[in-house]
Amino acid sequence: MTADGSTGSGGSRTDGAGPGGDARLDRALVARGLARSRTLAARLVDAGVVLVDGVAVTKPSHRVGEGTRIDVSRPERYVSRAAHKLVAALDAFQGVDPSGRVALDLGASTGGFTQVLVERGVRHVLAIDVGHDQMNPAVADDPRVTSLEGVNARDLDAASLRERLPGDAPDPADIDLVVGDLSFISLRHVLAPIRRTVRADADLVLLVKPQFEVGRTGVRGGIVTDPALARDAVRGVLDAAHATGLGIRGIIASPIEGTHGNRELVVHFAPDGTDPTEWTRRLDELTTGGRA
């Protein structure tokens, strides 16, 4: 199976170079159907899984000719690298099986989280994002997906969401699973809107990004450099969730670093979760290495 899903002898092709007879490696991967986008192509190259005439190449700008053989030893299966964050969370957290559930994906972007939910048997996903024209068509065209663009998560409520949904989409009152990978906004601003939009017993699996929680003064070069500050910022999110009636059922480190190398966490919130104070040691381990 080739990287684009067509039948073949392997993830390799020798056609598709540019008009000038050669092309950048990342462009060639897309042209030959071995990657869905240049961004994904660059990630495959950076990961060292792209072979050019049998030799691993790690520069996306490397030039290849029409007759150059390109092999991808481990094609990217998801439309977004971020999908692996949700994969890790669903594998780690007990009781968060998407199968048969109605889910809300906040900050859906290209659709990595939505794709994972569909792969795991979700009944339907309402995928929202404040941006436009971002979701990969391969995800958006699935009948189990309803994509809503130009929706700000902090403005959510059941009534306004219901007005925007097509007639064949599930009602917001049926949403019992919320996932989210939001940027440039504190989760403290969206927890209450989520709660007033979905079922009272819904599970929430959300990325907590310290770089968007500490405020501008806590970030240097886009990175939260003080682990204690990151810990306190995450604790603020946990406390805010508790104030809305949500407890904590699990916390893991994201398997993928955030922008500029920030260390992010994935948290499972639920009404039957425990008090944030019971997660102090776990939070210390994940943010400061256990150092106060």
Descriptive notes:
The structure is a single chain. The protein has helices spanning 25-31, 38-46, 83-92, 112-119, 137-140, 158-164, 191-195, 227-243, 280-288; strands spanning 12-13, 22-24, 50-52, 55-56, 63-65, 70-72, 102-106, 124-129, 145-149, 175-180, 203-208, 247-253, 265-270. The chain has 292 residues and is of the alpha/beta class. The protein has two domains: 23-72, Roll (Structural Genomics Hypothetical 15.5 Kd Protein In mrcA-pckA Intergenic Region, Chain A), CATH 3.10.290; 81-288, Rossmann fold (3-Layer(aba) Sandwich), CATH 3.40.50.150. It has a seven-stranded mixed β-sheet with strand order 9-8-7-10-11-13-12, sandwiched between helices. Strands 1-6-3-4 form a four-stranded antiparallel β-sheet, with no helix packed on it. Helix 1 (25-31) packs across helix 2 and helix 8 packs antiparallel against helix 9. It is globular.
